[in-house]
Specification:
CATH superfamily: Electron Transport, Fmn-binding Protein, Chain A
Order of helices and strands: EEEEHEHEEEEHH
CATH topology: Pnp Oxidase, Chain A
Number of helices: 4
CATH architecture: Roll
Shape: globular
Strand content: 35-45%
Strand order of the largest sheet: 2-1-5-8-9-4-3
């Protein structure tokens, strides 16, 4: 089987934010899909050791900011590649608080989605959250960033904690 073909699956690039009690976090994701329309339901895959996974499981909510092509690689690095257990990822990032009380990153974003978890599935290495869309805010008409743009134009790489990492960067023997 040639797993390299999975790199042809293009997706958007997103900032997922979460909050529980006095803790907040953010991470970069490319694993968000709309899976139903009435009601609007999204699925989000989160690495099982990710700090945000714990916050989302406890609060049952998260927000998703849709990155635009204006977002820089340096901005993306602030939100990815480090654990929110060790650094406050939102300290130097522009955000607002959504109606659901969770931060929503506005910097480098076309808009954001507010979500309420209705189910989750444990896939061993990742948790897939299914969430109902509770609010959507349009910020800007700029083009949304795709994973292809991130990898080619920004020369971005997926970290090993990304749900798509092994399929895209490890060749089967």
């Amino acid at each position: 089987m040639d797993n390299n073909v999975l790199s042809k699956l293009t997706t958007g690039m997103f900032v997922v934010t979460s909050a529980f009690e006095d803790k907040t976090n953010a991470f970069i994701a490319n694993s968000l899909v709309q899976v139903a329309s009435e009601p609007t339901v999204l699925s989000l895959s989160v690495f099982g050791k990710n700090f945000s996974k714990e916050l989302i499981q406890n609060s049952k909510k998260f927000n998703v900011s849709i990155l635009s092509t204006d977002a820089t690689i340096d901005f993306i690095r602030v939100l990815g590649y480090k654990s929110g257990r060790d650094v406050d990822k939102l300290a130097k990032v522009k955000f607002t608080k959504g109606e659901n009380g969770v931060p929503a990153v506005t910097q480098g974003a076309c808009g954001y989605l507010e979500c309420e978890v209705i189910n989750e599935v444990d896939l061993e290495s990742c948790i897939v959250f299914f969430a109902k869309l509770t609010n959507a805010v349009y910020l800007d008409s700029k083009d949304p960033m795709t994973s292809e743009y991130y990898q080619k134009a920004l020369e971005g790489k997926l970290p090993p904690s990304s749900p798509g990492w092994s399929a895209r960067y490890v060749k089967e023997k």
